[in-house]
């Protein structure tokens, strides 16, 4: 007749380890739920480095990939990279190839801006994303307040893309003349047509060339 097998004793320590594991699993489940995307307006207290992490500009990556002799620097200013592309291929800006490249670059910049920040004028998250990029603190909680801040600010539109790539803050200017000088010196020119096609971008347009 088979001997009765003794069940292993469950020690208090073993029980405690199981309970701790269960507790951690429970907390992990709730932690995961806590980081789901927020569809409501951004909190004015969310750390800015969490809202706008450095990321790859996929539309621009795809644009520069069309030119096999050019190696795109993922961490450099996009306007500087376009200048380098033109220099690499030896184009004149007004040449047929130069104009065609600029048109493609313009479309890629417009798409990239919309991907980073959104474009719908009725989407408060798009407006708040711009305010966060401008280092506005606290972040306005209504579209009307966001528009008021953006309309009163002089900034270069290319810098809005660059800040998500390089991590450098968007530079703000006291006057439109200072912005005009900066834009011409750095060649950071955002295509006007692409800007006009975006609902939120239109509010940031300034007359640079007069």
From TrEMBL:
<feature type="region of interest" description="Disordered">
    <location>
        <begin position="1"/>
        <end position="31"/>
    </location>
</feature>
<feature type="compositionally biased region" description="Basic residues">
    <location>
        <begin position="18"/>
        <end position="30"/>
    </location>
</feature>
<protein>
    <submittedName>
        <fullName>Uncharacterized protein</fullName>
    </submittedName>
</protein>
